[in-house]
Design goal:
With about 180 residues, this protein is mainly beta. The chain is built from 1 helix and 10 strands; from the N terminus they run H-E-E-E-E-E-E-E-E-E-E. An 8-stranded antiparallel beta barrel has the order 1-2-3-5-6-8-9-10. The longest helix is centred in the N-terminal third of the chain and has 14 residues.
Length: about 180
């Protein structure tokens, strides 16, 4: 129930600004690397968002693990990203005609799966998320984006938080009036 309520709030935060005049819809997808307890876990990262008032926007993000990685001192201990969902506000500042720097702040929820000697358990990764990055557009519709996000997790199993590095392609649909 709690996750459904959070998902509804995050979806509303992303979709509400779409009604703003001169907004621009975009999607991007690529690779995210979750740095957790010494393991670098690869995940597919997908985002959809809306840019409004030229400098501000909101986006919804989803990541799904691409396999488990060895972690810790044990040979048979593994960690995997099951899923991660975020709703964030994005601030943009143009530094070149086709390049923007980005700031991100929001909330994330998700699940990591740990496995030791064949015994699995799940760890929740709910928490505050913030980060920064950059975007370069090759054309009006196609570009590339990279960013760093810190997820502050209130879960002892995750030892404080996660660092997420991502890179992906961007497709902008154009202005919505």
């Amino acid at each position: 129930m709690y996750k459904s309520a959070v998902a509804a709030i995050l979806a509303g935060a992303v979709l509400f600004p779409a009604a703003a005049a001169d907004s621009e819809l975009y999607v991007n997808g690529g690779l995210a690397i979750f740095d957790a307890e010494g393991a670098n876990i690869n995940a597919l990262n997908l985002r959809g968002g809306v840019e409004f008032y030229e400098l501000f926007g909101a986006e919804f993000e989803a990541a799904f693990g691409l396999g488990a990685e060895d972690v810790g001192e044990f040979d048979d201990a593994q960690l995997e990203v099951e899923n991660q969902l975020s709703g964030v506000f994005v601030g943009r500042y143009p530094v070149l005609p086709n390049a923007d720097v980005l700031g991100r702040i929001g909330y994330t929820t998700g699940e990591l799966q740990t496995s030791v000697s064949g015994v699995s358990s799940d760890a929740e990764i709910d928490g505050f998320a913030f980060g920064f990055g950059g975007e370069y557009m090759f054309t009006e519709a196609l570009g590339i984006r990279t960013d760093y996000t810190r997820i502050e997790v209130d879960n002892d199993e995750v030892d404080g938080g996660l660092n997420v590095f991502s890179i992906g392609g961007v497709f902008k649909f154009g202005e919505v009036r």
